[in-house]
Design a protein that fits this description.
The protein is mainly alpha-helical. 52% of the residues lie in helices and 8% in strands. It has five helices and three strands. A three-stranded parallel beta sheet has the order 1-2-3. Helix 4 crosses helix 5.
Length: 143
């Protein structure tokens, strides 16, 4: 029985390494990055991923409005399709909207065509709700 349990644990370790650690290591070693870092004493960017969420996004938007702050929301397409009113509110309040794939799955586990379809599908949802085509994309899991 312990051999089976050890095999299962080893398999889970392998899967988690493949899913998170290995892609991160490869991207850092070989410089496959999509982000840029800058320095400023007075300016910074607020970004939020994975929404919109019907509970937290309205509260966050209220807080941003209270402090007259703007942010970029990288939305998951299936969440955007379920809550178009939140996408509209984000847009109407002057925030930027970017794509965070249609489902929150790392690109390393999908074929390139599937990734392209995820991006296009989410972009279409954003365009249908706001009337604006987005040009921002942040891959899930930062990779």
């Amino acid at each position: 029985m312990t051999t089976i349990l050890q095999s299962i644990l080893l398999w889970l370790l392998y899967l988690s390494s493949f899913y998170a650690f290995l892609p991160s290591l490869i991207s850092r070693l070989f410089g496959f990055r999509v982000f840029r870092r800058g320095r400023s004493d007075t300016l910074f960017a607020l970004t939020f991923d994975d929404g919109p969420d019907p509970h937290y996004t309205p509260r966050l938007l209220d807080l941003l409005h209270q402090h007259q702050a703007k942010a970029t929301f990288f939305v998951v397409g299936e969440h955007a399709a379920s809550h178009p009113e939140l996408i509209q509110r984000i847009h109407e309040e002057g925030h930027l909207i970017g794509i965070h794939n249609y489902i929150h799955k790392t690109n390393w586990l999908m074929r390139p065509r599937t990734v392209r379809n995820q991006i296009q599908r989410t972009g279409q949802i954003i365009r249908e709700v706001t009337g604006v085509k987005t040009c921002y994309y942040r891959p899930p899991w930062g990779l």
